[in-house]
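Model the whole thing, not chain by chain.
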Amino acid sequence: MNNIAHSPHAHAPISIGKVMGTVLLALIPATLFGFWLYGWPAVNLWAVSLIAAIVGEAFVIRLQDRAVRPALMDGSGILTAWLLAISLPPFAPWWIAVLGSLFAVIISKQLFGGLGQNVFNPAMAARVMLLISFPLEMTTWVAATPMGSAQAPGLMQSLGITFLSQPIDGMASASLLGHVKTDYTLGIGLEQSLSGYYVPLDALWGSRVGSMGETAAVLLLLGGLFLIARRIITWHAPVAMLLGVAVPALIFNLIDGNHYAGPMVHLLSGGLMLGAFFIVTDPVTSPNTVLGQFIFGLGCGLLTWIIRTWGGYPEGVAFAVLLMNAATPLIDQYIKPRIYGRDRKGAPLPANKGN
Amino acid sequence: MKLFDLRGGVHPEGKKNLSGERHIRVMPLPKKLFVPMQQHIGAPATPCVNLGEHVLKGQLIAKAQGGVSSSIHAPTSGVIIAIGDHAAPHPSGLPVPTITLESDGEDRWVTTEATDTPFAYSAEDIAARVAAAGIVGLGGATFPSALKLNLSRNSGVQTLIMNGGECEPYLTCDDRIMRERAAEIIEGIRLIATAVDAKEVLVGIEDNKPEAIAAMQVAAQGSAVKVVTMPSMYPMGSEKQIIQVLTGKEIPAGGRPSDIGVLVHNVATAFAVQQALRYGKPLLSRIVTVSGGAIKTPCNVEALIGTPVSELIEFADGFARPAARMVLGGPMMGQQFTQTNVPVVKGTSGVLALTSDEIGQAEASPCIRCSTCVRACPVGLLPLEMAAHIRVSDLTGAVDLGLKDCIACGSCSYVCPAHIPLVHFFNYAKGDLAAQERSKLKQEATKKLANARNERMARIERERAEAMAKRKAAKEARERAAKEAAAKVEAV
């Protein structure tokens, strides 16, 4: 007989590996769509990110004299690298992916103490590091060239793009938010700026300029709904984040439509869908009560909108998430559930015989 | 009836179909019965029979001791062959004071005082007879029932809640007793209601027991007893939770149900009360569910208190496959046991032999703060935060987060994707705090005694010094007097 075990002697059929696996499953449709849309360079970048994360994490775990296999098998490192990969410009050079992945798993996660200990979302921390350090590579976007189309790079050409940083002739373009911001600084109003550039249905289906995770808004939304249905995440943080962007966007759009983009433009662009369903729902770096998660999501949304509208960068999801990550312990300090038999302050409820 | 929401909770797989359709069968008379002196909350009972004495079924063999205790009766007729130690139905399996009774096979009753008019008894009388029958809470808490009746009568009872929740997976003993002995249970409930003068009587039964609900409704017809269907959810059968669901009230922290005018008893306890009052029969047996994937024929049995668990397993046709773990009670809050010679006691609701698939436990991995435990906690605690504090021995921090409000229901451990044994952390911390509390009391007592001793020694010293001083003064006075006398003589 084994050691004495404590109750309960039953367990829900769930594990960390299953949780991470389900999240990866939810990412697959959007990722495959991204592969199709941007062709082989996107596949290369994704593969390089994952390999770098796995090798980097294994190396650090070995340095700590810990068992490598169980730590890698939980799938959290792969998820981090995957999320980072689909937030990068698809034609970015290989070293961007490698640097980002290593920064994410080693600096942002393992240095903080490994799984469950990191303060900042590793994928977003890595993205911000890359954006600040390598602004050129991180803002070089290309027009979509779906696999099979005439302009699509072949396999060999794609290896050149990813690994030799071969220039991409005439394909460079700007993402929607970047375009709007640039035009705005040039004094061009939204109506003119958006015309021909923003087609709502295209935004929905992703056939436009951006990162892999940016373009397939609908597929990301479906993946998120799948996670909610599977009870891996709750609706609170995602809905709050979307509200945090949509509500101010709506108000300011009503005030000055030629200056402030409307809620649909905001909701369907940038990393918002990815952020709402796959980033702010990261359990490690978000608060531990549903109310706290709602506040956290709302903060992420508001900050995203503020950075997009008045900040120096066209996109703000990653910055917003990191700022709110820092606020998570504070939210947890103040937002606690009321305990049975006690009032909100923790004092016992008064006796009441009910006679 | 309007039900109130329960926070958190989990939905473990019921597994009640394993034994739910099996009628209660009475176990054959065991050759030897091992009756522990402590089967209830409170002080152990004191044996009042001698070695070698022949006793009749239902005869008092151990008397209640002190304020909180319960008496124990001979489960069958036979000879007392040992008054000593036997393995306890506890994870440790350590020996505890136990009376061993060898059955004479006749199962002969002591003279009992039956009546056709149990409702003629006064409230005090009912409580006294419940106490004399050695009845304790059969839901598992095993608090002496008569005490609860007396406490509640004094404080006044608005709502009497009869707990037929049976939210633990596998267990079907309450389900079966409600299906098969509904009339007796309802009479018992009415007797309890009489004893505490309850204004309202509710029987809460989970909706996964439709036959029990129907049987109880039929039996309750024409009485003031109201049978209420509750949603199936764990821990619906916990005292705090069933009160919350049925009345919308919460027991104040650190308080008792009587603080809010509520009294909760288990349905099986009501059956025992009815038997004690109408037939004068003390509590000698209980319904036990023998189940689990490793048991060949899961079933419900009526077993005499003191029957070795091994005989129950044999009665269920033994093991179908090796058990990875054996548990007394339900899987959510039951306790593991390792020796099958431990006896059935008043609080034994189930004997489970589980396979490793059923247990489904894996090596614990790091907490990812997913807060599934927070959403599962029916009390509104933050299990992950409490565990983090306990892991670094910050018990005060855990108490500040509400450790003492934890009901150890196991919902958090059950849902944890990292398989962290959260309840184990909490019970460890509670045990450590209790030990600290005890050693603090001991230290205070020691300090008090030491102070008293120091004071006494100082007083003795002072008194001696005073006495010495007095003697010295007297001596000096004498000497002076003598000198003066001598001087006088000289002067003369």
